[in-house]
Amino acid sequence: MEPRPLAPLSPPQPALPTSGMFGAAADNGFDEAVEFARLRTQAARYLKPEDVERLEAAFELASHAHAGQFRISGEPYVFHPLAVAETLAQWHLDAQALIAGLLHDVMEDSHVTKSDIEGQFGKTAAELVDGVSKLDRIESQTYQQAQAENYRKMFLAMARDVRVILIKLADRLHNMRTLDAVRPDKRRRIARETLEIFAPIANRLGLNTLYRELQELAFKNTHPMRYRVLGKALRAVRGDQRELIMRLMTSIRERMPVWGVDAEVYGREKHLFGIYRKMLEKRLSFEQVLDIYGFRILVKDIPGCYLALGALHELYKPVPGKMKDYIALPKANGYQSLHTTVIGPNGLPVEVQIRTNEMHAVAESGVASHWLYKDGTAQSLSDLQHKTHNWLQSLLELQSTSGDSSEFLEHVKIDLFPGEVFVFTPAGQIRNLPRGATAVDFAYSVHTDVGNRCVACRINGELRPLRSELKNGDQVEITTAQHAHPNPAWLSYVRTGKARAEIRHFLKTVHQEEATHLGERLLSQSLRHIGLHLSDIGTTAWERFLKEFSCKQREEIFTDIGLGKRLAAMVARRLADLQDEKAISDGETPARPRTPTPVLIQGGEGMAIQMARCCRPIPGDPIVGLLRKDQGLEVHLNDCPVLTRNHSSERDRWVDVEWEAGGERLFDVGIRVLIHHRRGVLARVASAIADQEANIQNVNMESEHGGDTIIHFTIQVKNRPHLARIMRAVRHIPDVVRIVRDRSGDKAAEKR
């Protein structure tokens, strides 16, 4: 939890501008010329005179474009872009960014176009304004879909130029500061978006002051009553512990020179949102949250940080496990500091941050203090800039592997939260990953190919499962195989957006190809049921069908059928109707009925055709197919109880299927063997199975009354005759009482 300044004890902070809160309306004494003069004065301190003149021209255009427009609060609309530009000036952004801040809404709210802006202020300013502007909403889109598209556009523009998001953050800050005039439901929605998207972005870019203010404003608007109650309680505690805090700060200040440390010591009070989040996460009452105060020690250099830590720990005992060294291991957003919690007078725990003045500047202003576009050479980039640049580039990778905008936004949200686990490659390089990250996340952080082909891992020299969660200091080595590929089960435990996006992209690509072939076979079968062949459907019928369903090519229809998104029978009937209409219009007779044929199953088609885990069919079994939405065709036994119990109402999705002759694939099947428990009987049963050229995949044993034992085997067989030979061989063993095929399969599958 990042603390906020305790006013009488804190140093002067590079405060965010407050000019955005102008009041209610233009006739209450608001003068846009006066507000711009303040912006002009601030910008003139670091911009060239010619840039200030361009800023004046941008203000004139914004004032003209927004003339007659008012915000919900009643104030003239132009005060909003002025407030945004003033925030950007506080961050000392360049002229193009300030111009874009003044003009960021003109493309949405007036007839000014991107070409107009480019003609007057240049391509860069026009691109920045376009990056911040929302897309036109399509009528068929929901609000959530439109928002996801807008965020996607913003993130991709941000990946090209970080100033886009800095402008958007300044825009969101002023909107949050003036949210009181908005109706309550919209206020809560905007506040939630701020907590989920904009506050984490500010944190990811190292804008901690902005991050904390956005969190506070979002908390105030999502839970106004809790905000007021906590604020009142905090003010009461502040008065009670004032003298104690002053005594603590004085003792720390006096101890530093004794250790030869030239330091400034300031008191801090933690944010209401940070206190509230701690209460929720640890289920504490306000009275149980003791560390609501903290201190910050600023020194001249890094050795001074560690000297100050030693002096502090000599003065007050540290709390074990609460010391974090973010100087040696900086956070992903470039944040550096020493954190420790000590027990002060009266047993009061106090959090202390120790950092240099340069670290403090980065902690408060982050990437805004020296952004990437000033000099594109790699040599000019600081560590913070490199990390920010790499993160922005990762957004472009997510864009190329994500499907729709909602999926892209989901992946970005995952990566917005800071990493807390530092692990090492075999070469000693540090990788920063989020808490809960696994070896698979690590593999994808190294390279996409390493992730896609990983088969095993060693953590600290020991072989461990790929789903193992990584801990601070782990050394991870990934083993890859040339023909390995991602497992869909990985999606249940990976934590990084990159890993999730790459796995989905691979599975979707492979799955789509298989689904296309399956869909074509299913459609061909459905057409045979109504007397047609796929080749009977002419180009005209296909063109009319594709136009009706807004598709560009036949493969899209095949894929949708294979994924269960469309029913083959319905597509076949509509195509047949269109073909009959064409034949009648041409004076021809429709094609005669033909004998329907089932879909042939090999069992090795891939993910588009799956053997149901509830009944485990094998070649030779009577089977039926179930077309499951987005999962392809699932093959069940004809008498599968799960199929008849859970899917009897979906008979229109049942498909006639048969086994194709000559398949050589092995299929998992369960057998249950009841034995007299004698020495060596398990080995004899396993040997009998192996003698019949079958693989044993899994073995489980359970005791029965009377000293007998049931052994559950999962074995791999070619077909029913192969299984029958195995069961005969096992049955001939003297200690085997009974052997049956186990059709219970996967218990989880039965519950679907």
TrEMBL record:
All copies of domain TGS, residue ranges: 419-480
Positions of the HD domain: 77-176
Organism: Uliginosibacterium aquaticum
SUPFAM superfamilies reported in the protein's UniProt record: ACT-like (SSF55021), HD-domain/PDEase-like (SSF109604), Nucleotidyltransferase (SSF81301), TGS-like (SSF81271)
Pfam family, one: RelA_AH_RIS
Main function: In eubacteria ppGpp (guanosine 3'-diphosphate 5'-diphosphate) is a mediator of the stringent response that coordinates a variety of cellular activities in response to changes in nutritional abundance.
Gene3D superfamilies: 3.10.20.30, 3.30.70.260, Beta Polymerase, domain 2, Hypothetical protein af1432
Family: Belongs to the relA/spoT family.
InterPro entries per record: ACT-like_dom_sf, ACT_dom, Beta-grasp_dom_sf, HD/PDEase_dom, HD_domain, NT_sf, RelA/Spo_fam, RelA/SpoT_AH_RIS
Annotated ranges, domain ACT: 670-744
Entries under PANTHER family matching the protein: BIFUNCTIONAL (P)PPGPP SYNTHASE_HYDROLASE SPOT, GUANOSINE-3',5'-BIS DIPHOSPHATE 3'-PYROPHOSPHOHYDROLASE
Protein's UniProt name: Bifunctional (P)ppGpp synthetase/guanosine-3',5'-bis(Diphosphate) 3'-pyrophosphohydrolase
Annotated CDD domains: ACT_RelA-SpoT, HDc, NT_Rel-Spo_like, TGS_RSH
Lineage, broadest ranks: Bacteria, Pseudomonadati, Pseudomonadota, Betaproteobacteria, Rhodocyclales
Compositionally biased intervals (Pro residues): 1-15
Region span, Disordered: 1-21
